[in-house]
């Protein structure tokens, strides 16, 4: 059985028509029932934690205490103040009876709440306005301030006059970073207190009904897959040629070794520290929040990886250990690439893809961002599963494999928003299968079953939360995150091509540029050749599918919410396929299509243009991988490979050698074109192929040389930390940072009580630093702080800033001061190359509050008060 653009045979359907009709009805019923259950999952009740914070701590005096709420505004605040505390204040004195932010802080007047005593008269300051409350009606009464939703009410009550309202103000619940009073302790105790309901809206878990629905959905999906394979059986014996496995097994071993080596040597991706914060906070809080920014909003729907990684992180936080899931995903992706190539080799007459070329394409696409904690490698893996299943469904005439693609796509939705890419192979596979199924009822059944398979997303996306939590988290991350509209996609390409601020220089490395740009060039060449539709065309049939997947994938990325170039990594599997299949098929395509000088010289122009642009990028790196880097922020090889004339010369030399070799051995495709035309085509292939072979070597060489430079000066490097993890425990960079007293930062962390706040650009390399816990709507006050060095200092500081991204630790600025502790990285002449160590000193004691947690049942559509609004921190809406 072969597939080379001739019309495929009708795919197999159920045997007996009568039995088919009866069986298909049951299949349809199961598919629609599964979809209905999946739709119900987000609306099912959840168990929600209700957190009340009380001050002062039981049995303690009413003294000011740090209480940093996250999100900044609690859901509700109740303050009580005895009238006697106002009446007994000495005449002429001003006192702060109560405040939620230190009154001298910049944001206190606009965002906080203060109750001030001025000459025995009370005034309330909230929402930027001051409201006089007058003198107390006696000494045995009490003031009560209640803030909830968008209203603040002040009441006074006493045994004689009852309760009456003094003021009603339209303002939000105030920010809280501390409970502050400057009343003398003996007078404040028993006279002033506060109870706040913290905003812990994402600390939810499934209720009994939700658990039943999720299990039913999973069982329905499994049933659909099993019955689909029993119904759409395919040929009794698979066709195609048998293929040797020994060489593929050997190459798989070599690729696995390369992936493991890259786990040690490979660079940190930009957001490794960011995602590490989410992972590390999952256990204490019970949900995967944004941690450093966006008010620690839950990462719904991207929750699957956090839960999958949790058991692994119980073993170690060492960088090499936390990289292992991405390394395993790389091995799996390679096996699926090899599987698709073997399917094409076995069932079609498509050009043979040399395994060395497939390996080069894989490493070129995967290496720049393959061993990080970002979700894109796992999106690429889901897309690989979907692609493999779609190709197998077509070539083996078993459309039931499309349900495997559906499950992969459903799982991918729980990884991140770019998970939509896994739908593309499924959609094209369904179009092909439906065109060749003999009856409409079978086509309809197959589509319904595939939809039910995708429905596995519901119990994964809504594992802990309901639709209300999903909407809250989506709104917060859109308002305070890096989301952009569809036209922001142009900025993503600009980040790759250069000309942007230094903050995004790391996106412009040649290794990041080459795979995506060269894949686009090969896609355009394939499109120029494919419309001829000859039966023996090199890009015909299933061999052309990866090019369609890649083109549609580029279009799909336009509608994803975030616009940074790292998201191109979600296309890694498709890029690797396009690079390998394109370079393997073009020689035959040029010859079989009798492509003339216009097409071949155009192909040469595109390849020279894209490879020249790729090699033109600066040798820029993120974080500690800048340490010891040769030619840092400069062009590699002084820009020689970015010169089009140099590339043309190299391509011409190799093309000449190839043509002479073909002539001498009498091999190669029969090509009637003149030698100059053939030379143009082979020059394009030589330039592209040599770039694929060279880029992984150059990238690994630069990182290896950086590590050797650090070793020569007896200094630390990221690969050294990974190697240390292989033979024992390591605290990463902290082991090699020395304080003035001769101790290491590791020892300083060990003997200092409390957590350590490490800026997200570098936190990946401090596995022994316990990050502050964000849970129960509160921030655990850190005692030490490690800030990022150099150009990353700004990125790190965003977590301690209110705008523009609503940093989770912004409240520290009003209640703490930072005192630098001199320290330096061993063997490095720049004392701040590694960052800066600070001791965090608070104006008031921490841990002087009582936290009470209870559980309530809420509907799945319950939402908290909106905080994706202009007035929450005076942030304007994102650009439309």
UniProtKB/TrEMBL annotation:
Gene Ontology molecular function terms on file: arabinosyltransferase activity
Membrane topology: Multi-pass membrane protein
Pfam families named among the record's database cross-references: Arabino_trans_C (PF14896), Arabino_trans_N (PF17689), Arabinose_trans (PF04602)
Start and end residues of each Arabinosyltransferas concanavalin like domain: 49-201
Subcellular location: Cell membrane
UniProt domain Arabinosyltransferase C-terminal: residue ranges: 744-863
Gene Ontology biological-process annotations: Actinobacterium-type cell wall biogenesis; cell wall organization
Domain Arabinofuranosyltransferase central: 205-657
Record GO cellular component, one term: plasma membrane
Lineage: superkingdom: Bacteria
The entry's keywords: Cell membrane, Cell wall biogenesis/degradation, Glycosyltransferase, Membrane, Transferase, Transmembrane, Transmembrane helix
Magnesium found in the keyword field: no
Keyword Secreted: no
Recorded family membership: Belongs to the emb family.
Protein role: Arabinosyl transferase responsible for the polymerization of arabinose into the arabinan of arabinogalactan.
Name this protein carries in UniProt: EmbC-like arabinotransferase in arabinogalactan biosynthesis
Organism from which the protein derives: Amycolatopsis cihanbeyliensis
Organism lineage: Bacteria, Bacillati, Actinomycetota, Actinomycetes, Pseudonocardiales
């Amino acid at each position: 059985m072969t597939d080379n653009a001739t019309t495929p045979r009708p795919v197999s359907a159920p045997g007996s028509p009568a039995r088919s009709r009866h069986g298909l009805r049951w299949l349809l019923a199961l598919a629609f029932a599964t979809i209905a259950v999946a739709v119900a999952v987000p609306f099912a009740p959840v168990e929600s934690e209700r957190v009340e914070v009380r001050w002062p701590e039981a049995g303690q005096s009413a003294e000011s205490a740090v209480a940093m709420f996250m999100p900044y505004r609690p859901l509700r605040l109740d303050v009580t103040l005895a009238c006697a505390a106002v009446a007994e204040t000495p005449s002429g004195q001003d006192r702060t009876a109560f405040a939620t932010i230190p009154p001298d802080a910049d944001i206190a007047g606009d965002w906080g709440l203060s109750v001030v005593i001025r000459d025995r008269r009370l005034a309330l300051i909230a929402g930027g306005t001051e409201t006089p409350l007058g003198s107390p009606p006696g000494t045995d009464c009490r003031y009560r301030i209640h803030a909830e939703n968008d209203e603040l009410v002040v009441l006074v009550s006493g045994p004689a006059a009852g309760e009456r309202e003094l003021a009603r103000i339209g303002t939000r619940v105030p920010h809280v970073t501390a409970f502050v009073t400057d009343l003398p302790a003996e007078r404040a105790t028993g006279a002033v207190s506060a109870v706040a309901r913290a905003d812990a809206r994402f600390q939810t878990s499934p209720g009994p009904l939700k658990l039943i629905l999720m299990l039913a959905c999973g069982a329905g999906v499994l049933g659909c897959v099993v019955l689909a394979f029993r119904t759409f059986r395919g040929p009794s014996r698979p066709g195609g040629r048998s293929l040797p496995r020994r060489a593929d097994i050997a190459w798989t071993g070599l690729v696995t070794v390369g992936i493991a080596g890259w786990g040690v040597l490979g660079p940190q991706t930009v957001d490794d520290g960011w995602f590490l914060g989410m992972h590390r906070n999952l256990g204490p809080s019970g949900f995967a929040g944004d941690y450093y920014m966006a008010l620690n909003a839950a990462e719904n729907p991207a929750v699957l990886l956090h839960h999958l990684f949790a058991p692994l992180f119980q073993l170690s936080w060492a960088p090499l250990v936390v990289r292992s899931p991405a390394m395993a995903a790389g091995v799996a992706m390679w096996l699926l690439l090899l599987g698709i190539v073997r399917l094409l080799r076995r069932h079609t007459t498509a050009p043979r893809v040399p395994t060395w070329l497939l390996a080069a394409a894989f490493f070129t696409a995967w290496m720049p961002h393959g061993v990080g904690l970002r979700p894109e490698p796992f999106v690429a893996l889901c897309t690989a599963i979907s692609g493999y299943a779609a190709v197998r469904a077509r070539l083996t005439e078993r459309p039931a494999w499309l349900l495997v693609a559906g499950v992969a796509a459903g799982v991918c939705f729980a990884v991140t928003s770019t998970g939509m890419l896994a739908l593309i192979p499924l959609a094209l596979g369904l179009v092909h299968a439906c065109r060749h199924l003999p009856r409409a009822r079978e086509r309809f059944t197959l589509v319904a079953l595939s939809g039910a398979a995708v429905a596995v997303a519901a119990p994964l996306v809504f594992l802990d939360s309901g639709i209300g939590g999903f909407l809250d988290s989506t709104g917060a991350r859109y308002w305070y995150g890096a989301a952009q509209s569809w036209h922001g996609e142009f900025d993503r390409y600009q980040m790759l091509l250069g000309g942007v601020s230094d903050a995004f220089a790391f996106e412009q490395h040649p290794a990041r540029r080459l795979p995506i740009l060269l894949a686009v060039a090969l896609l355009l060449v394939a499109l120029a050749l494919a419309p001829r539709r000859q039966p023996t065309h090199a890009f015909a049939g299933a061999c052309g599918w990866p090019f369609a997947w890649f083109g549609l994938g580029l279009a799909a990325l336009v509608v994803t919410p975030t616009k940074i170039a790292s998201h191109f990594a979600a296309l890694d599997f498709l890029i690797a396929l396009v690079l390998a299949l394109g370079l393997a098929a073009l020689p035959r395509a040029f010859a079989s299509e009798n492509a003339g000088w216009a097409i071949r010289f155009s192909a040469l122009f595109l390849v020279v243009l894209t490879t020249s642009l790729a090699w033109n990028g600066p040798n820029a790196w993120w974080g500690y991988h800048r340490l010891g880097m040769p030619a840092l922020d400069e062009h590699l090889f002084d820009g020689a490979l970015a010169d089009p004339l140099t590339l043309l010369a190299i391509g011409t030399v190799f093309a000449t050698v190839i043509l002479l070799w073909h002539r001498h051995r009498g091999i190669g495709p029969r090509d009637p074109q003149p030698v100059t035309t053939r030379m143009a085509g082979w020059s394009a292939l030589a330039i592209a192929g040599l770039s694929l072979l060279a880029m992984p070597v150059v990238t690994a060489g630069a990182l290896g040389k950086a590590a050797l430079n650090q070793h020569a000066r007896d200094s630390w490097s990221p690969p050294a930390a990974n190697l240390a993890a292989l033979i024992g425990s390591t605290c990463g960079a902290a082991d090699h940072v020395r304080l003035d007293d001769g101790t290491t930062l590791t020892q300083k962390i060990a003997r200092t009580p409390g957590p350590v706040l490490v800026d997200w650009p570098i936190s990946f390399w401090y596995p022994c630093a316990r990050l502050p816990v964000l849970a129960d709507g509160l921030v655990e006050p850190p005692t030490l702080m490690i800030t990022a060095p150099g150009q990353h200092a700004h990125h790190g500081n965003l977590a301690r800033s209110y705008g523009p991204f609503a940093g989770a630790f912004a409240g520290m600025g009003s209640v703490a001061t930072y005192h630098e502790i001199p320290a330096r990285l061993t063997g490095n002449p720049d004392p701040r190359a590694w960052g800066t160590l600070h001791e965090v000193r608070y104006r008031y004691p921490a841990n002087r509050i009582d936290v009470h947690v209870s559980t309530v049942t809420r509907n799945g559509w319950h939402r908290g008060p909106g905080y994706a609004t202009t007035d929450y921190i005076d942030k304007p809406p994102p650009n439309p």
